[in-house]
Amino acid sequence: MEMHRKTKSVKTLLDFFSQRKDAVNAVVLVELFKEEMNKATVYRIVSRLEADGVIHSFKGSDGLTWYAACKDCSCEEHHDCHPHFQCKICGKMECLELTVKLPKIEKHKVDSEIILLVGECENCKA
User: Fold this and answer.
1) Is 3 within a domain?
2) Residue 34 lies in a domain
3) What DSSP line would sit under 11-35, residue for residue?
4) Which residue range forms the structural domain that includes residue 117?
């Protein structure tokens, strides 16, 4: 589902994700943009951005959905299969640039994987 209309709200979220290196959860997104768009609009746009390969989502240890910018993805294929790290002290969520080799499972097709490491980030550990 490629985004055909780039409304002001779509442009706002595209700009937001293009400037971030870390992930942000859905609750924070809604709160950040509550003056510019309603909750349903935020969720509709992030769903479209994910379908278009602009962002990816994953569940954190808190059960919330987190979103982060993709690299070299498209609506046909997501290449952002990587682990994430969540700091248990400050809550910061990071995409880790690590390659993890997933095992092949006979007679199964894996559509997605979730690898979440939880601990203390560099700042909180110090």
Assistant:
1) no
2) yes
3) HHHHHHHHT-SB-EEHHHHHHHTTT
4) 8-125
Tell me if residue 111 falls in helix, strand or coil: coil
Query: For residue 125, how many other CB atoms are within 10 A of its CB?
Result: 9
Is there a contact between 41 and 47 (Cβ–Cβ < 8 Å)? no
- Report CA torsion sign: 46, 66, 94, 84: negative
Q: What is the Cβ-side half-sphere exposure of residue 103, based on CA atoms within 13 angstroms? A: 3
Domain count for the chain: 1
CATH code for the domain of 52: 1.10.10.10
Per the domain annotation, does 1 fall within a domain? no
- With the CA atoms of 89, 90, 91 and 96 taken in that order, what torsion angle do they form, in degrees rounded to the nearest 10? -90
Q: What is the pTM of this model?
A: 0.78
**What are 43-68's pLDDT values in tens digits?**
999 999 999 989 989 888 888 999 99
Residue 32 one-letter amino acid: L
Tokens encoding 98: 């690590």
